[in-house]
Structure formats: C-alpha cells, structure tokens
Amino acid sequence: MAEPEPRSATGPAARSFVHAGVSSRGVLRGVGWLAAARLLGMMLSLVSTAVLARILSPADFGVMILVAVIANLAAQVVEGGVAVPLVQRAQISTAHVHMALLLATGVALILSAGLVAIAQVGQALAGREIIPAMVVVFASLTMPFRAWISVLSAILQREGRFRDNTIIALQSNLFGNVLPALALAWAGFQIQALLVGLLAASILEAALTARAARIPRFRRPPLAAARDLAKASYAGTVMQVINWAALSSPNFLVGTLFGAHALGLFSRGATLVNLAKDVLGSSLSRVLLPTFAAMAHEPNRQVEAFSRAMAASLPAFAIASVALVLHAEAAVRILLGPDWGQSIPVLQLLALGLLPRISYKISDSLLMAKGEFWPVAGRQLFYLMSIVGLSLCVTTLGLNGVAGAVTAATTLYYCLSLRAVSNRLRLSGPQILRMHGTAAAWASSAAGLDMLLSWATRSLGFWPSQVTGGAGLALACTILFFATPRGALGTDMAALRTRVCDHLASKLRSVRQRPMPSAG
Predict the structure, then answer these.
(1) Nearest to residue 138, comparing CAs of 66, 210, 58?
(2) How far are the Cα atoms of 78, 85, 189, 502 from residue 373, in angstroms, in the given order?
(3) How far apart are CA 58 and CA 65, in angstroms?
(4) Which UniProt keywords apply (predicted)?
(5) Residue 426: DSSP 8-state
(6) What own/partner pairs with CB < 8 Å and gap ≥ 24 does 255-262 have?
(7) Does residue 332 contact residue 344 with C-beta atoms inside 8 Å?
(8) Which of 14-23, 231-240, 247-256 has the highest mean pLDDT?
(9) pLDDT greater than 70 at residue 32
(10) Side-chain half-sphere of 136: how many Cα atoms within 13 Å?
(11) Fewest CB within a 10 Å sphere: which of 18, 188, 250, 286?
(12) What count of other Cβ atoms lies within 10 Å of the Cβ of residue 508?
C-alpha cells in the first residue's frame, strides 16, 4: 500500500507530481486516448508490415523480434522496479524522479554489459556466433532509451496526461520507425531497415516524453529517495522480469527449436493478437493502475471500479477474439501476402486466448495498486513455467503446438489472477461468472451469425463470404448492444447506450421537423 513519504526523502520539491483525479469520465478519457494511440499505431504498423513482408524474409523479422525482445528487458526491469512505484506511491518529489532516472540508466548499462558478455562467452564455448553481432549492437543501443521511456511515461501516467502519451507514441512510431524502415527497405538495406527503425523510434520517443514530462534540472538525489522506491522495487522488478520472460519465452522457444524462419512466421502470426492486447489491455492497465492506487483507502470504490471495468471490457475482448479466429485467413492474406499461410493457425490459436490475455491486466492492476507485488510475481513465475512446460510437451506439433500451449497457460493464469482478486475483494464465484456472462453471450451470438452467413455465401467465393460474415458479426454486436438488459450490460455501457439513443432520437426529430420543400 502507498504511504506518505518521509520529509527526509523529499527536500524542497521543485515540481509536484500529483495523482490525477478519479472519475469514470477520466478513466474513459484516458483509455480512449491510449487506445486511440495504439489503434493508430497498429494501423501504421499494419501498413508497414504489409509492405515490408513483401520485401523482407521471415528470417529478417525473426532477427528483429530478438532485438526487440532483448531491448525491452531493460524497460520491463525499470517498469516494475522503478516506474510502477512512482505511479503507486501517494506522494513523490523531484528527488524520487531523479533517482528513478539514475536507476534506469544503471539497469540499462548493466544489462547491455551482460548481453555483450553472454554473447562473447557463448561464442568462445560453442566456437560459433550464438547471438548475432547485429542483435547485440542494436539491443545494447536501444536499452537505455527504453529504460528512460518507462520512467518518463510513469510521470505522464501518474498525472493522467494520456493525451500527451498518445501524440508522442504516434509521432515516434511514424517518424522514427515506419518512414525510416520503409525508406531503407526500398533502398535494399534488408534487416538493417527494421533495426534502424526500432532504434530511431526509441530515441525519438525518449526525447519527446522527456520534454512533455517537464522534469526539473537534474540534481543528485539523496539516498532516502532510493529507499522510498525500494519498498516495492524488488518485488516489482522480479514481477516484470518474470512477465517479460513469460511473454518472450514462446519467441525464444520457437527460435531455438525451429530456427529464425519459423520464428518469423510465428511472430507475424502473433502480430494481430499482440496489437489487440496493446490497444485494449495495455491502455486499460496504464489508466487503471493509478486509478486503483488513488482509491487505496476506499475498498468499496475499488470493488465498484473493478466490476465496472470488467463489465465494460469483457464483451469487447470476446468479440475481438471471435473476429480474429473467424477471419484469420483474410487478415493474413491482406497483411502478409500468400506466402505466410503457415501463420494462419498460429493466429487463430493465439486469438482464442485473447480475452484472458488482456483481462488479466485489469486484475493485476488492482492487485499491484494494493501493493501485492510478490504474490503477482509468484503467479507470473507459475505462468512462465506453464508456457515453457506445455510448449516443450507439444513440440512435435510445431508452431501450432506452441501457440496452443501459450493460450492454455494464459487462460490458467487468468483464472488464478481472478481467484486472487476474488479473495482480496471478497467477490464470490457467481459474481465473477456473471461478469463473464454477457461476454460469452455476445461472443457466441456474433460467432453464430458470422459463420451462418459465411457458410450461406461460400459459393460466391472467399472474399464475398468473408465480407458477408464480418457484416453479420457487426450486425449482431449492434443488436446486442441495444437489446442487452441494463443490469447485464453494465453501468458505463448502459450510459453509453443512453447517450447514443438520445443522439439518434435528436437527429430523427430534427429530420421530422425539417420543412418539406415546396412543389415547383
């Protein structure tokens, strides 16, 4: 739990870093901004992927994934050990922020040195290059910027400045990654195009976030600031490293067992699932963590906020999962081209676990806001072991086996996370099940109409049947949105429906009251 900081750690604060006010509108606005950023970023990534997949090979994408995964380790360590405590604490000072930046720099330098050492020792022992030199160079260069971004973004997150985050994410993605990568790929630079784009985007995002955060001029912070952050740092660091390892383990397993070509196929198949997770899940977790933390001494409000977040989110997650499963082939054909057919079942199997993969971010945000870092870390260790163990048991099934193992392990972790929330908030099993009832009804109804229309129009060809089925899914969602009882729909979704109905009624009245044109 967050506690008031001691006077010795603060000193004269040159700038206050206060929690944003708690309100449903503020939460929705924050989620909306972050989701918009990730959605637009997703569209940029999909466009660049659609072009680059026709220029570069799966092996190129496999190498790029290794660089991104390794470089992101610094961000994950800093996120859990430094950034999350900055968001969770009731009060922080400029000294805490300066200490966090120092710690982030140290983490990045240590990890970069460790990566170089591992590469050198591995090459000496094996007599060959274990980690490609290009991976070592670009991952080491990217690590410090990813670490600083975690700290600086935590300041914006704490203050509810999600609009700034949105603009920065879009600018860095477009001008730092997409445009340079496309230009270099067309110029024939192959894998260098992807790696330069990743590094440039990290540099630009760090610079823009630092400018937005308005950190006062650096002064050496007192050690007391480090002690204030340390209470949650150790558990938070372990938690984030284990989470990084769990999410990255499928890529490492596929790359180790099946090679870079298979890793390229697997990673591209997982692209849409990861993008949906980022658009929906990461946006929620970044907004809900400071929201739940601001309610630290109001457990009843936390229960209400958790229930409302689940009621508003689960149907959207379920529909996204159904759409990806049913239209995976169409998505792969459009985005990747005809040579990536092996990615289709990977996408479908991972999409089956989309709801638990996103929803556990809501439950974990609540538990972290309550300071339960070690229990979350313990469950994530079990999650990592489950992914690795199940994947190794089904390696004979190839990429599809690994994808199915990831979905099974994610679903199991989600159940354990829900059980922890249930115990912490004293929610009963039937209450938890009711939260998922609307999502199950929406998913089954939409999937049924989609499959029925796709089957009825299959004689017209692949694309007409896909478009008709997708239209049926959208129609089912629209009908369900207006027909679902208020109690099952949830407070926020019901309020949104009321506003939509009022707007439509107003438009209809204005049309009726418009004078008819005179004849002649």
Answers:
(1) 66
(2) 14, 10, 44, 44
(3) 11
(4) Cell membrane, Membrane, Transmembrane, Transmembrane helix
(5) T
(6) 255/62, 255/65, 255/66, 257/395, 258/398, 258/399, 259/62, 260/58, 260/59, 260/62, 260/63, 261/57, 261/58, 261/59, 261/62, 262/58, 262/62, 262/398, 262/399
(7) yes
(8) 247-256
(9) no
(10) 15
(11) 188
(12) 10
Band the pLDDT of 23: cuts 50, 70, 90.
Answer: low
Tell me the longest C-alpha to C-alpha distance in the chain.
94
More confident residue, 23 or 295: 295
Q: What is the DSSP string of 354-423?
A: HHHHHHHHHHHHHHHHTT-HHHHHHHHHHHHHHHHHHHHHTGGGTHHHHHHHHHHHHHHHHHHHHHHHHH
3-state secondary structure of 15: coil
Place of tokens 């912070």: 221
% of the chain residues with pLDDT over 70:
86
- Separation in Å, CA 40 to CA 13, 37, 169, 173, 497: 37, 5, 9, 10, 25
Contact between 15 and 94 (Cβ < 8 Å): yes
What digits encode the pLDDT tens for the residues 151-176? Answer: 998 888 888 787 888 789 888 988 98
pLDDT digits (tens, 9 = 90+) for 445-473: 999 999 999 999 999 999 999 999 999 99
Distance between CA atoms of residues 241 and 110, nearest Å: 15
Kindly state the percentage of the chain with pLDDT values over 90.
29
pLDDT at residue 234 in the model: 67
Q: What count of residues does the chain have?
A: 520
